[in-house]
Amino acid sequence: MKVFLCLVALLFVPSLFANDDLDLEANMKNTGLAFKNSVEATQLPEFNTAIDEFITLVKRSKSATFHKQAEQSLQGLDKVIAKAELAKKLANEQGLDAAKGPLKAIDGLRKQYHKLHEPPGFWELLFGK
Questions:
Q1: What pTM value is reported for the model?
Q2: What is the arithmetic mean of pLDDT over 89-112?
């Protein structure tokens, strides 16, 4: 039995030290859900929980490997974090309605920075940029 437990423990130890790349797609889906929960929150504690999770997930996204325009992508994530922290501050000081402006700005930033990673269209593939 002790041998079995040692073998099981050895199987999991390498995963603790592995430096695997972040699954950015899964992380972004969770980030989107946390953002949606923060936008739909009707109570301050619910909002704070959702926005804290959102900020944590966006910070985790910064550790991902960006193959295209990495510097711009990281700048975009920093802008999103700043807007989320502003939304939290305003919500706690002035109420949930005050957070709507920064939350809309986050959605705009999402649209802007997702364009950096869109696959090329048919005409762009055919003729280049």
A1: 0.74
A2: 94
